[in-house]
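Methods — Computational structure assignment.
A single polypeptide chain was analysed. Its primary sequence is given first, followed by the predicted tertiary structure written as structure tokens.
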Amino acid sequence: MHQRFTVIFGKMNLLIWALIVVPLAPMFSFVFAVLRLEKLNTTLLLTGIMGCMALSVVLLLWLIRKHLSLEAVITTTDDGLKMELMRTNIFYPRKEIIIPLSNIRNFSLNYDARSGQQFVVLRLARGANLQISASRNAPDDLQAFQAALVVQQERYNSNPALQPGGQIGNTSFYETGFGRLITGAIIIGTIMVTVNQLVGTGVLPWYKVIWWYAIAAAWLVNVWYARQKKMPKDD
């Protein structure tokens, strides 16, 4: 039975490039202008830096929300997924996108502790990986979509003619080898920072310590959530 879900769709490569380029562009422009000045006023410098940071945040949110993350209707089919974008733009010129099950290598339901939002990541064999998040118009569709993916995964992986290594996985990034390496590094770093502040010289400023704890806490909450999703539930 085909099911339809209203979600927010985005290509992860575009989202990552936006996170890199957009914050750098205003700062580089400001630095270029500052280097052309013979005399530099400290107040002007600080104001310019704060202004660039604020402009970067505004531009990034505007670009992601208005152009890089579009509402779409996903329909499950016998062969995979069909996405119909509500609108198109320069980043997403095609209104309809077909994703065969054979092109899906992995999917995972993830949680971002910083925003409190859930999202599904589709890792494809060909093409950019996709991020699917909840739409305000249908907030419950994301969970239902993930459940439908599990059904499709089980049906696809049960095919006896499937080639070795061609199965659809259901592993989050935090459960990969690289993700576990980062988790270990964060735990060790947190212990070192804590010991240094308690019995060491306390060379780190307090704001850097708080910043580290905030980053570590967000990451570890995401790891905990990924593991909870894998734990078997009691009947």
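Note: The chain has two domains: 1-170, 173-230.
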